[in-house]
Batch of 2 targets.
Target 1
Amino acid sequence: MASDDQRERILSEAVKLLATAGPSGLSTRAVAAAAGVQTPTLYRLFADKDGLLDAVVTFGFESYLAEKHALEPSEDPVEDLRHGWEMHVAFGLANPAIYTLMYGTVRPGKQPAAAAENRAILCGMLERANAQGRLRVPVEAAAVAIEASTTGAVLHLLAQPEEARDIEVIRPLGDLVLDALIDQPAPGSSPIADRAQALLGIVTPTKDADPVTEAGFSVFEAGLLREWLARLNEASR
């Protein structure tokens, strides 16, 4: 359809203009002229400048997601998280204007569907790490920490002169954040055995109290629970 072609052309020119002139140069008149359409046509398709900016932000997230979808998950979700952190930073440094629009001008309550999909991909990686017993905090808390570290790091670099935007400067931050969120398993260890052993340590009675019977279980049930945990620990190893 002609209107679809016009919309794509306007959006394409808006992205180009944003990259060369920055947000201040992204006027509806300039975009319309670059796309070869009348300004009323732009307003008909995008309603107003805010609608155009929302479409550009959605385009940015969809471009970033295209890279993420092309990434095949490995057997190690933690390595996938490290790769994802680097991919995010690299995208921001390669697309400074659109990244700043995506993350530096956020309007609460207004988030494109692609942004929610991006969060879902991150949470999926974290869920896999959690299933392996390697996540130290809840998935949601880990997602917030990773998003804050990546976004803050990129926006900090983009505030520097272009020649000073060195990814090596912020790479240690990614390692620090992920190391704080993730348990590194000992060689030959099993996540199931590690969790069983940790729980066994919690429910083992002391000379003064038994945490399991104090929680309302019988002595028989408490003993059975500890026996199962011990057997699970040994079997998993």
Target 2
Amino acid sequence: MSLTVLATGPRALLQDAGRIGLASIGVGRSGAADRAAWALGNRLVANPPDAASVEVLLGGLRVRAERDLVVALTGAPAPAILDGKAMGHNAVIPLRAGAELGLGTPDRGLRTYLAVRGGIVVDPVLGSRSTDTLSGVGPPPLQVGVRLPVGPMPAGFPLVDVAPVALPEAGPVLLRIVPGPRDDRLADPDALVATTWTASDRSDRVGLRLTGEPLRRRDDAELPSEGLVRGAIQLPPGGQPVLFLADHPLTGGYPVVGVVRDRDVDRAAQVRPGQPVRFRQA
């Protein structure tokens, strides 16, 4: 069984849970940027929790089923058309052999996930089928004409037709943070949460780059490189913070002035360029 890629949109990648436990040898986790949306898709089609899905940036994906398949769409609500008929999100969708499914541009959110019952089963790299855009590890971005092999049907069956979940925010996004570990490097410790930031169009899977009134450091002293985690808010010399996402580097020498709660990092991965972002201490 397989899916043939007919169009990719701005970018379509394969993603799963990522390469867990390899940071000590310099390999980042990567994996789905919005883990909650990716995991929901697998649950809807009764996949194993580590099955690989397609992560679609701002819609535009179009695929053809070469055999009868079952899929689900989660994350950003890209308008979905199946052989001329509109389909819903967060729901189980049967695809007959030869059927074509296409995604338009979502009106909110950034990343849509296409989960296929059986999962996408390309060869794993270092234990994962995820594409790490920072290191280049993993499968290449999807191209037109690629056939994606689909694994065998799981033993279990989908238990619900539709999952009632909230849509990604269309307006300002409020993210909960834990201060530190280097918030003492800020001249004004309250400035990070007092500022309304704007998502930059230079954001990607590595990090959500924010623009606003630059934060001032207490001094210009540099730090030794330290380990970084998903959700870390790093402050480069220019004073515009970067919130690290799925493909973040493993170390960095700029101060980390806060860390976003893990669940809220999924929401940050759906923030579109130009969208306002605020932080709140949790």
